[in-house]
Amino acid sequence: MGKNDILFERAQKTIPGGVNSPVRAFRQVGGTPRFVAKAKGPYFWDAEGTRYIDLIMSWGPMIAGHANPEVVEAVKQAAETSFSYGAPTEGEIELAERICQLVPSIEQVRMVSSGTEATMSALRLARGHTGRDLIIKFEGCYHGHADSLLVKAGSGLLTFADSTQNAPSSGGVPQDLVKHTLVLPYNDVQALKEVFVKQGDQVAAVIIEPFAGNMNLIKPSKEFLSTLRQLTSEHGSVLIYDEVMTGFRVALGGAQSLQVITPDLTCLGKVMGGGMPMAAFGGKKEIMSKLAPLGNVYQAGTLSGNPVAVAAGLKTLEIISREGFFDCLTGQTEKLMSGFKLAADEAGVPFAVDSVGGMFGFYFANEVPTSFEAVTKTDIEAFKKFFHLMLDQGVYLAPSAYEAGFTSITHDNGVLEEIITAAKTAFKKL
Ligand SMILES: Cc1ncc(COP(=O)(O)O)c(C=O)c1O
Ligand SMILES: N[C@H](C=O)CCC(=O)O
Fold it and tell me: Which residue minimizes the CA distance to atom 3 of ligand 2?
């Protein structure tokens, strides 16, 4: 029994399932989760001292590489002055100003401590603003674990719940609570139009992952997005871009800058906190001013705008704003995916790849899927084998075929070469 097994056994005694977030438990792929001891750049080392190339990067945040020296220094300096005040700081203003500058659809922003809080608060705000109850989400999208969003949800829910039913994907969520949540297939223009014809004047908000990353990576069509923007505008519904994953990861201005769509509200998280518990939601001033203490929509948090997280976030945003950062990250991610594709082709394995900025998806299928239904038809058994063959060679992929992958600026050519060499071996053994 190795140290990881020993730790997993020990963890399961005091932590449900041995993990503090379900997808870490390797439920889809089987085997023992790696317990991380330390990380640097594109690598982490587990409790047994084995080095892995990390292609999850904390599920997105570590875009500047693990333990980036500049971010570490900023955090150290902030920590010297206390970890939290529960009172406003100048750093929060700087971060808010920076976010508004980088994502122009955001005129005002409120900071929270997790992506779940961001989407939950954005929905409450949208409902308060419109005076309507109904929300629309899309199949396979995950927006955190707020009750009303746990219907046909992606990410970990796809590996342990039946997310095909129009019922809560989680126990403990009353049917009554999700009756105000309508779920539509991603990329289905017709379904969207039909709902708006019938119930458009009841829709408070439509929330979407603008590049879905919680059912592997699925991209929206241009027509789908423009219809979405048009219908929500026509019917006075709030369009919420959940950019917790894509914000500051697919491009400096997020998915909305690539798609040239202006949402009413945007949710951010992950990269904006540089790996610290930090997230935000923001958008039109007209809507944001409905929030307490100005308006009657209540939202609060003891640790919101935490100074140490703000320092990590500000430094990370500074790093990713440097010239060439996103060109380099995007190029490296594309190179990684074409390396995978070539290796699969050489081995005669049906395989498709996609990427945007520092986010990627690969599929054991002949073509890139465009819906949740299509993702479920990919060869999950082949994925599981591939995952373990890569892990055995020191490459750490997301332990589920329903998650996107993430690179960082430290995934340089040498690192890519090592991953692609491992992939060649893995495809040959499949
Ligand atoms: C698109 C999206 N929204 C919301 C969340 C929830 O964020 P958090 O895990 O920080 O609560 C996540 C990730 O978990 C996500 O990927
Ligand atoms: N897919 C999730 C977020 O992006 C994975 C993170 C988690 O829930 O632990």
Answer: 59
C-alpha–C-alpha distance, residues 138 and 153, integer Å:
8
Strands (E), 139-243: 181-184, 203-208, 238-243
Q: In Å, how far are 205, 392, 417, 421, 422 from 425, measured between CA atoms?
A: 47, 11, 13, 7, 5
Phi/psi of residue 184, nearest 5 degrees: -120, 155
Has residue 91 got a pLDDT over 80?
A: yes
Summarised one tens digit per residue, pLDDT across range 404-427 is 999 999 999 999 999 999 999 999
The two tokens of residue 172 are 């403990």
Give the number of other CB atoms < 10 A from CB of residue 190: 10
- C-beta of 59 in contact with ligand 2 (< 6 A): yes
Fold of 69-320: Aspartate Aminotransferase; domain 2 (3.40.640)
Per-residue model confidence as pLDDT tens digits over 348-367: 999 999 999 999 999 999 99
Q: Which residue has the higher pLDDT, 107 or 156?
A: 107
Residue 283 reports pLDDT greater than 70: yes
Q: ipTM value, please give it.
A: 0.99
Spatial CA neighbour of 358 closest among 250, 202, 252: 250
From 142, 186, 396, 402, the catalytic residue: 142
Q: Which CATH number fits domain 3-67+323-429: 3.40.640.10, 2.50.20.10, 3.40.710.10, 3.90.1150.10?
A: 3.90.1150.10
